[in-house]
Structure formats: structure tokens, C-alpha cells
Specification:
Keywords: Signal, Transport. One of its GO terms (molecular function) is peptide transmembrane transporter activity. This protein has 554 residues and is an alpha+beta fold. It has three domains: 44-197 and 482-551, Dipeptide-binding Protein, domain 3, CATH 3.10.105; 206-270 and 393-471, D-Maltodextrin-Binding Protein, domain 2, CATH 3.40.190.10; 271-391, Periplasmic binding protein-like II (D-Maltodextrin-Binding Protein, domain 2, 3-Layer(aba) Sandwich). Helix content is 28%, strand content 23%. The strands form seven sheets. Strands 1, 4, 5, 6, 7, 22, 23 and 24 form an eight-stranded mixed β-sheet that branches.
Length: 554
Amino acid sequence: MPSHGSNDDGDISRRPLLKGLGAAGLIGLAGCISEEGDVEADNAAEELIAEGFEEEGVEPPFETTVYANSDSSDRIAYGELIQNELNETGFFDVSFEDMEWGSYLDFMNSVAEEEENALLCSGHAADWDPHVFMNNPYHSSAHSPSGINTNHFEDEEYDDLVDEGVEESDQEARQDIYADAQERLVELSPVALIQFGEQVTAWNDDEVSGFKTHPMAGREFTAVYAPHEGVYTEVDNDDDELRVDLGSDVPDFDPISQEDTVSLMATTLVYESLIAVDFAGNPQPGLATDWEQEDDTTWRFYLREGVEFHNGDEFTAHDVQTSYERYEGEFRESDVYDWYEGSEIVNDHEIVIEHHRDYSGPFEATGAGDVPIVPEGAEDGDVDLSDGPVGTGPYQFDEHQEDDRFVIERYDDHWYSGDEYDNDVPETPPVETVVMEVIPEGSSRHQALEVGDIDLSQGLPAESVAEFEDDDDFDIDGALGLTNEYLTFPLWQEPFNNPKVRRGISGLIPRETIMDNVFHDVGELAYTPISPILEDFTGTDYQDDLAEEYLEVQ
């Protein structure tokens, strides 16, 4: 379930992508101001900006503001670096502001409608298919507030490529389509990609064993108990309790309205989907034991029998139908109605799902693998998900203390019997209770883990990772993730309506400095939107070539 990332930050190969005119070469190359007061470009990126200014009739310096959310020290830090870099050119007079996350989310969702003169430090938590990377932040059908295309970027050629890619099931053909789409996106640069995130988890080695970091933002606690992956976590304490951290309070329990990664994290072990996607993006049986594609737009699912929701309701095909159709008209409508036409209930444990278009490429990972199933009563009010999440997962909701903690406990009637998958995951989760402590500040998270107030942290600041790596009392596990960070341009505002200006700014962004000083080499540099974790759809040489061709990075 893709969303705006509120920005959380393990050990992978680092591949510097910036050539020649890298961060070290950019810093300090301020645009020269002539005796007549004109700003002169000092490098290829600034020449692009100068051309764009001239074409739009804009005189430098142009005043604008970079915004970030105050609970993300990383975004504040790289936002201020970008502010300084642009001010150095002489073409811009940039100020900086930060906002509390809730206010910032509202601001992002309304910035296009209000035509704010704002550069936004933002990010995208995607999924296992390239379509999610390419569609949700950039397709014209995903405009905010019902989608996360916050600057309302529109390009018919780009939309056509993304629509073609989602209907193609042949892997090589999809690679070619998404290569063309990424090239078009870099050419137009509605955003400036900065970094691919890395999911990093640290835990007390004496207290926790068996944990594995999940690559997908919002799925950080999956490894507490993941029979489909063959992973489970054990704790060494009398209460069988695992204490972890959250970066903010949990604002929403209902899947149709969740728009933040924290809500997904808190409810990952509570909700389940038709298909369980493993840590490498491969589909596994979930609430559906089997499924088949009957034609381009028709899929048949055979549902697991003997499953109960946490409130005691029996799980049937009616719950599946309701779970999908509840999305209509809601904030996350596009997650389902991007492809959903309707469904036919064959019997309590068989359902046929019809698509209004061919969605063959991403359907298993996103359409069936990322839509949580809730009780049918959630539609008519018999089950109120605003009071707490109700699913079929291995853990059930226990309590929520606002701005303090969110607690889930083992669900003893979970359907898993130990035989469904070919692995040695025990029938019962070893961890009885998961206590999620709300700790917004990165330094406080560090201290909480260090002194034993929590057993495991998924949200440490990048600078803390090396310290825990060097401490034998702690384990660190990292995985290149399915997230990226970027700067969003106000496309309605001159001179940012000109692609040359946007490409020039993207070429000026000191990515290597940001990686070194902000992310402390956690993650990888980004020029294109698809994470390198999807190896078939991206690569170092490919990113380099596009950067050189369109951003004048040489």
C-alpha cells in the first residue's frame, strides 16, 4: 500500500553515481554576478536554469521556499543543503520552513490547489512492482488529495507508457516500457530524485533473536511472525514481550484511509491479504490458498477455510468483496479502483475478481497482496475500525494510548497450524505481546535502545547505525528498500513550469554530500524513480546515462 513516507531510514554496496560535476564540484560554484547585476551561469546545470529563466521572462533572484516535516531530521538537513546550494547560484533567494507531520501532509495535499510557491522535501513508500513507483506519484490519475501526485504533474506520453506497462505481463517488454517511462520522467523532472532509502533495524542481541529487516516501508515488524517467509522472532524475557519504537502516534486504523507508514507498521501483523508477499516480492498463499488468472481481466481465488476475524466473525468471500469495494470514494480509492471492476461470489470460499483493464503485471503483488481484508461489518457500522483494527492476522489489537504506545497481542485462534508452508515456523508466535512505544526524536530512540527501554528499533538516525554496528551487544540488519526521497517542484509557478529550470536544479543538488553528511552512506543515490532492489528495471549505468543526458551532469 504505497504512501507518503514520513522518512525512516543496513549493509549494501554503495555505488556513487554522480560524475564529474559531483557534489564536491558543485558546492561553492556560485553564479557570478556581473557589474551590470546580471547572474552568470558557472556550470552546465546553471546554464539550464539561465535558459529557463530567459524563456519564462523571470529575472533573478527568484524568491521561493523549501519545506520539510519537522519530525524528519534527514529532510530538514537535506532541505537546508538544497536551500544553500540554490542561493549560491544567485538565481534564487530561498528560505526554509518546517512543519509538524500532520500539518505538512495537509499542506502537501493542498499545495497544487492553492498554487503555493513551495519546494517540498518528500518521499514515496512503494511496493514490489515498478508500476507503483511510476504511477502513484506521477500519473495524472493520482493527483492529490486522492493520490500522492501532489504537484499535479500531467504528461500524456508518460501516462500512456505507464498504462502500457501495467497491462504487459512479459518481463522483457515491461523492462523496455518502464525504461522509456523513466527517461520521459527525468526529461521533464517534475521532481528531483535524491536517495533510495535503506531499511535498517537494530536490536539488543541478548533479548531478541531471529529478526529480519523487511525491505518495504510500513512492513517493518513483519518478521515478528511471518510463516509465509519462514521467519519468526524470539525474545528472552519472562513476559514474552517485544518492545519496539514508532516515530509518531498511530493516526488511523482503517486501511481505506491510512496515508502514512506508521499506521501501516502498527497494523501489519493485525491485517492479512489474499496473497502473502515474501521478503523478495514473491507471492505466497495468504487468505487465499490458491488462485488462477482466467483471462486478461479475470482472476479466481480459492479462500482459506476455518479462518476467523479477531472479533469472532467467520472469514468468507463476502468479507473480501466488502474489503475491496469499501475503497470507492475514499482517500486510497486508486489502490483498488485503478483496476477493480467488480467481483462475483461463487460461494463462501471462492470469489472471482474482475478488472476493468488488464492489470496483469502488478496484480499479485499489489492488487491481491496489498489490500487488507476486514470484516464485512466494517461497511455497515457493525464493526467500527476507528476504535481499533480488526483483521485475521497472528496478532490482535490490545490498546492505544495516544502519543504514547500502541499494543498488539498474540491471537491464539490464528489459522496457521504449522503445516501450510514448508518451513519450521512454530504454530504459535513466540512473542506474546508487541509494545510499540511512540518515540519521535531519533536521539531518544538511540538512547531508548541503548539503555534497554526498548528491545528493537527500526527508526534510528543514520548516524546511530555505525555506533550500534560497533557494539557487540547489538545486531544490525539492513536491506535496500522500496522508498525514495525527492524534491517536488511547483509546476504551476514560473520559472518551475520550465523543465530546464527543474533539470538544472536537479543537476545542482549535492547528492553525494547529502549521502555522506545526512544519510551517512545509508541507501543509494537516485536520479530515476525505481529502486535498484527491482534489478530488472533499473541500474547504475542507466541512471548515469539519464543524468548525463537530461541533467547536464558530466
